[in-house]
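Per-residue structure
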Amino acid sequence: MPAIREGSISPPPLAPTASTPGPRAVALHKIFETALSTTIRTHSYGNFAACFPTPARHCPAALEGVWRQLNAKLEDGCKAEFDAILSERDVVKGLNCWDEVVDTARRKKARAVDGEVLERAPHSLSTEELYNAYLHPHMQLATKTVQDRLRNTQDENTQLVEKLVEQRQEIARLTEGLEALVRDLEGSVEAMDEGEGRGVDGLRSEMWEIERETQNTTQT
């Protein structure tokens, strides 16, 4: 991008305050004063006297005084009404803002002539660009919210998976222990059924034989 030439653009004038009339506010005052003066001049004494011929013939001085008073009252009333409208509508502030916008546009135009790349004006954007520009902040916030919730859900799922793995490992260990216990019990039963004592019945017979031998020995 070409560099902006130093000193090629004069510094912008100081912007008027809201209460100080700017160029357009001053021009509006001048237009009003010119229109009012033209209207007062149109209301001449000759036109006024033609409306009142009898007083004009008999007391022209008094009639002229009345004419002057009416003109002065009309002028003062118009000025007071104009000032009231300016104050009520905040016209001076609005015109000053208009001056500032126009000056800013002129400075941007001057910088564009010097080769500076300027941002596009809002009115030159397409409907899709305006739509995206309006929705982009909301979409960013919604995307961040969804991502945060998804991240929290993923963390919770990871913790649940770890707990499930631990529980499965514990179940596997308990199952192995029970299977070992069952095998021991089955081995004991088989030993009792297949051993020298021939199971429970053999053990009972052996106990009877031991008891008989003990009785015989006692009797002897």
Observations:
- Confidence is low (pLDDT under 50) at residues 1-12.
- The radius of gyration is 56 Å.
- The CA atoms of residues 46 and 64 lie 10 Å apart.
- Helices lie at 23-42, 45-51, 53-58, 60-89, 91-113, 127-194, 199-219.
